[in-house]
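During the reporting period, we have paired protein sequences with backbone structure tokens. One record among many follows, to show the layout:
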Amino acid sequence: MDYSLQRRAVLADVHSGRTGLFEVCDASPYLTRAARYHGRTTDVPCPVCRRERLALVNYVYGESLGHVSGQAKTDAELTRMDAAQEEFSVYTVEVCRACGWNHLDSSYVLGAEPAPGRQPRRARRRAVTD
């Protein structure tokens, strides 16, 4: 799913003064660090400050990922996970490390579809009986 229409609406509100910069330039320290170490720098300048190029950060979520769910991953790590994991969701966030602008860029699903007749991991656990 592409979130570019929502992005345009937010930026229009910022440029018209209906939304303050403090509302859209609120990247957490964790997100800016993830952009630095796990992000992919683009050629697109920040639409707010225009001082730095945006970075794209991928976050993964899925029941089969266990403790990895919610972590930032590089493109190379996503490629390896795609071949080795059951289905999981990827959310890509664009981040400006200079001013803190951040916005959800896209979301998609990777990984292998579970085999027919195979129950998801969560459903396979046996219930404890007294």
